Amino acid sequence: MQGNSILGDYNHNSCTHTQKGGDWMVNLGRPVKVDHVIIHNRVDCCQERIDKAVVMLDTPKGPKVCGIVYFQRGRNVYKVDCLHKVPAVAVRIHQSRNDYLTLCEVEVMA
Q: Exposed/middle/buried for 29, CB within 10 Å: 0-12, 13-18, 19+?
């Protein structure tokens, strides 16, 4: 998902969010060895919603956890390194808490 992440303001249509405890997913179209995922967080409010979001790789052999995001006050961009380096067909971000997941941009880097 690439948008106008410079704004990071939900009211300017530069972010999206799930229902409470929901998932966001992108289909990669083919198996790709994902190196890391960069998440741009919302900046206008509710930044703590990113806390404990789980980045997962959907692989032909099942899901693999890439990493977990821990909220840090004042930080708007989070890099999650994927140590498995296995071919993934999709990247999923799951809010492990019963809260909304708000994302303003997600970059999947191979």
A: exposed
Calpha distance 12→98 (Å, rounded)? 25
For 11, the 3-state DSSP assignment is: helix
Overall pTM surpassing 0.85 (yes/no): yes
Burial classification of residue 70, based on how many CB atoms lie within 10 Å of its CB (0-12 exposed, 13-18 middle, 19 or more buried)? exposed
Query: Using the 8-state DSSP alphabet, how is residue 47 labeled?
Result: G
CA atoms within 13 A on the CB side of 8: 14
Best CA proximity match to 40, nearest among 110, 106, 108: 106
Which pLDDT tens digit goes with each residue over 47-99? 999 999 999 999 999 999 999 999 999 999 999 999 888 899 999 999 988 89
| Strand pairing category for 102-103 and 16-17 | antiparallel
